[in-house]
Each structure stands twice: as structure tokens, then as C-alpha cells.
Amino acid sequence: MLNIIQNLISSLKNIFSKEVMVFIISLMPILELRGGMIAAAILNIPYIKAAIICIIGNIFPIPFILLFLKKIFNWMDNWELTRGFVEHFRKMAHKNRTKVEKYGFWGLVLFVGIPLPGTGAWTGSLVASVFDMDIKKASLGIFLGIILSFIIMSILSYGLISNIIR
After folding, report:
1. Cα separation, 118 vs 100, whole angstroms
2. pLDDT by residue (tens digit) across 21-59?
3. Contact 113, 147 (CB under 8 A)
4. Using an 8 Å Cβ cutoff, are 47 and 154 in contact?
5. What phi and psi, each to the nearest 5 degrees, are found at residue 31?
6. In b/e form, how buried is each residue of 42-61, taking b as 16+ CB within 10 angstroms?
7. By three-state DSSP, how is residue 32 classified?
8. Which of 60, 63, 54 is nearest to 23 (CA)?
9. Do residues 153 and 113 lie in contact, with contact meaning Cβ atoms separated by under 8 Å?
10. pLDDT tens, residue by residue, 49-87
11. How far apart are CA 164 and CA 144, in angstroms?
């Protein structure tokens, strides 16, 4: 992940400010807040500023995913070209469903919050959307998961990683 973040930073550095780069990285699936916090540490963005940018960047796409993803997937099912794409994401959601359902609301919080490959707000929102979880409960669970992820990534990016890089 570190190489991807460094490549993104070097690709975007002549186009965007440091803060906008961190926001964009925090918006991206897979990288999300985790990648944003690492990028912010690399770019020496002050901790509080990085926290605000990364949390907002990670939260920003979630309402759209929860509200519209299922409708978009149903529409995309009508087209042969996009049907395989939708099926891939439905399988991913189904694979992760048991992890979330086992512990209910707190399962969603932990799934989003613990920074492991294949977890995070995007995938948590995908699971919640595809399986019709209550939108208010899912939103709160995802938000708490983002805060948990932020705490973990703060320790890693502004502690461990920033000391290794410098």
C-alpha cells in the first residue's frame, strides 16, 4: 500500500495541494482513511488537519453508496457488459456478510474499523447496501468504524510509519 500511496503523491503533487491529495486518497476505495493518514504523515500535514481531511474524505462517499448502490447494481444487471462487474461485488459482499452478521451492528463497526485488506467503509457500505441493512444503523456503524480506523491509523501513520520514513 505504501508504494501505491507514494506513486499517487508523486503523480498528483504538481496538480493538487497536499491537503487535496490526502482528501482524494481518503475517498478512494481500498486506500480510504488508511491511505489518507499515511499520505498525510508522508506529506507532513499537521495531525489535527489530517484527521479532519481523512475522516471527511472517507465518510463523503458512504451515503451515496448506501442510498444508490443497490439501484445502480440492479440497473447494471440489465447489461451484459456490466453484469460480471456487479456479480463480482455481490460475491465480495456475500463473502463478507457472515463476518458482519455474526456480531451484528458491532460486527459492521469492527469490519470497517480494523484496517485489514478487503475491509473498510466502502466494503462495509457495499455489504450493508446489498443486504438491505437499516440505513441509519448502517451509517452509524460505518461512522464508528471509520473513527476506530482513524484511531488505529493515527498510531501507525503518525507514530510508526512517520518514524520509519524520516
Report:
1. 13
2. 999 999 998 899 999 999 999 999 999 999 999 999 999
3. yes
4. yes
5. -75, -50
6. bbebeeeebbebbbebbbeb
7. helix
8. 54
9. no
10. 999 999 999 999 999 999 998 888 889 889 898 989 888
11. 29
Q: DSSP assignment of 115-142, as one string?
A: --TT-SHHHHHHHHHHTT--HHHHHHHH
Measured CA to CA, the distance from residue 147 to residue 12 in angstroms comes to 27
The cell for 52 is: 479532519
Q: Give the 3-state secondary structure of residue 7.
A: helix
Three cell numbers, residue 18: 497536499
- Grid coordinates standing for 117? 485488506
What's this model's pTM, rounded to 2 decimal places? Answer: 0.84
Burial bucket for residue 160 (CB in 10 Å: 0-12, 13-18, 19+) = exposed
| CB-count exposure of residue 91 (10 Å: 0-12, 13-18, 19+) | exposed
**Whole-number Å distance between alpha carbons of 136 and 58:** 17
R_g of the chain, CA atoms, integer Å: 16
Measured distance CA(142)–CA(147) in Å, rounded: 9
SS3 content of the chain, % helix, strand, coil (to 5): 80, 0, 20
The dihedral region occupied by 104, where left means phi > 0, alpha psi between -120 and 50, and beta the remainder, is left
Residue in the block written with cell 491511505 = 35
